[in-house]
Amino acid sequence: MTPQTRRTRRILGLDFGLKRIGVAVGNTDTRTAQALSTVTARDGVPDWPQLQKQIQSWLPGLLVVGLPVNMDGSEGAMARRARAFGRKAGGRFGLKVVFVDERLTTRAAEQLLQTTAAGNRQPAAKRARKRDNLAAELIVLAYLTEWAQSAGQRADV
Fold first, then answer.
1. What is the pTM of this model?
2. Mode of pairing for the β-strands spanning 45-46 and 20-27
3. Which of 45, 64, 66, 70 has a beta carbon 3.0–4.6 Å from 102's, enabling a disulfide?
4. Are 36 and 13 a contacting pair, CB within 8 Å?
5. Chain centroid, CA 88 distance in Å
6. What was the pLDDT predicted at 128?
7. 15 Cβ partners below 8 Å, 6+ apart?
8. How does pLDDT run across 53-93, given as a tens digit for each residue?
9. Model confidence pLDDT, tens digit, residues 38-62
10. What does the alpha-carbon distance between residue 99 and residue 140 come to, in Å, rounded to a whole number?
11. How many CA atoms lie within 13 A of 13 on its CB side?
12. Alpha carbon distances (Å) from 69 to 6, 24, 80, 103, 112
C-alpha cells in the first residue's frame, strides 16, 4: 500500500470551539476512531502550527468538522464559525472538508466521562480537553456510520 493510499483512508475529526478544538483520527477501513488531543484556539482561531503538526503526523485524506446546529436543525453563529474554520483549514492544508451534524456530541462526551471515576476526579481544564477530544471522536464515528451506510466506497475517502 502506498503512502497516498494510506492517506486517503485516514480522516481527522475536529470539534470546533472558541478555546479548544478537539482532534480525533479515524480510519475508513476499520471504521474506528480514536481521540487524540486538543489544539488551542483564541476566540475560535486555532493555533495553526499545532493543527499542522496533527495533519503532518496523521496524513489524513479528509477533514471532518463538527457542525454545531441547533436542535431544530437551523444554523446559528457557532455553526457559521465552524463552517468558516473548516473552509480555512481545508484551504490551508489542501484537504477536502466534510461537515457533520454534531448535536449533543459534547453532552454525550461529558456523560462518557461521568461514567468513569477517573473522569470525575480530573481538574476542570483537563476534563474539558478530554471532553472535546471525545466529542471529536464521536464526530468521526458519526461520519464513519454515515459513510458506511452510503452505497459502496465513496470517492471522498
1. 0.79
2. unpaired
3. 66
4. no
5. 15
6. 67
7. 21, 22, 23, 24, 66, 102, 105, 106, 132, 133, 135, 136, 139
8. 999 999 999 999 999 988 888 888 999 999 999 999 999 99
9. 999 999 999 999 999 999 999 999 9
10. 10
11. 31
12. 32, 20, 9, 6, 21
Task: Output phi, psi for 39, to 5 deg.
Answer: -105, 130
Looking at residue 130, the DSSP 8-state letter turns out to be H
Element (H, E) at 131: helix 124-149
DSSP state of 87: H
Yes or no: say if 112 and 120 are a contact pair by the CB < 8 Å rule: no
The share of the chain scoring above pLDDT 70, in percent, equals 72
**Residues in the chain, how many?**
157
> What is the side-by-side order of every strand in the sheet holding 62-67?
45-46, 32-42, 20-27, 10-15, 62-67, 96-101
73: amino acid identity, one letter: G
**Would you say residue 151 has pLDDT above 50?**
no
Amino acid residing at 65: V
Distance, CA of 106 to CA of 21 (rounded, Å): 12
